[in-house]
């Protein structure tokens, strides 16, 4: 597999990470100056626990279960072959009994990863399209996206919890000198700014996983077809099923449908933009 980088995309990811890093430096300085630094170790333990158990939490949220080769021989064979092409250890294979056609990858490292597909996805896609989706999820594993996004969102999570605690304790009115109130205001600003930066980073990483998955299979058009089919199928899924799985939206290959405001804050790029890039990559590969 020729894992060619998209330097424009990498540059945008690096810039977004730099802006997050600069924002977090200011945030840590504000916590130190206001004497609120004690939040960091506590939230650090929370994020570390989330990091190490992310795959189990994701499977639990979806009601998914690990499946054996006897249960899903073709799916296991596909994951094994694509993992070899991606130069990855074979991840755990899981299936969620859901009418929502989707898939996700979870796990803290390349050696501790899980790829999960829904029964709705297996019923919706043909073999080439399913390969494209599985390869996309393997690209997330290869790019260590769970680790990257966990690290990127650490201090954002701290900021969010400080804001919530501020409301619980009445905005810090009883804190001497108003130091805690300053920490709340700083945390609110950091959380809002980092919210947008992290979502931008997530969208860039989806583009990177699309590119990586297409290069694993050598068929960008198959992944493009799968994205369009999944996106179109969402309108036919019962709304109660969509509500049940809304918490997993950031993990899915295609997010659940949302309104205009929701799309502005989405963790995923628009399907049309993803398909356009895949078609450009298809032409690039054909010209070589």
Q: What does the model show?
A:
The chain is of the alpha+beta class. Helix content is 65%, strand content 7%. It contains 13 helices and four strands. The chain has a four-stranded mixed beta sheet with strand order 1-2-4-3, with helices on both faces. The longest helix has 39 residues, at 179-217. The two termini are 14 Å apart. Mean pLDDT is 84; it is low at 171-177.
Give the neighbour order of strands across the main sheet: 1-2-4-3
What share of residues is helical? 55-70%
Number of helices: 13
Distance between the termini: 14 Å
Shape summary: globular
Query: Which range does the strand content fall in?
Result: 5-15%
Largest sheet: 4 strands, mixed
Helix and strand succession? HHHEHEEEHHHHHHHHH
Give the number of DSSP strands: 4
Structural class: alpha+beta
How many domains in all?
Answer: 1
Radius of gyration: 20 Å
Pick out the low-confidence regions.
171-177
Average of per-residue pLDDT values: 84
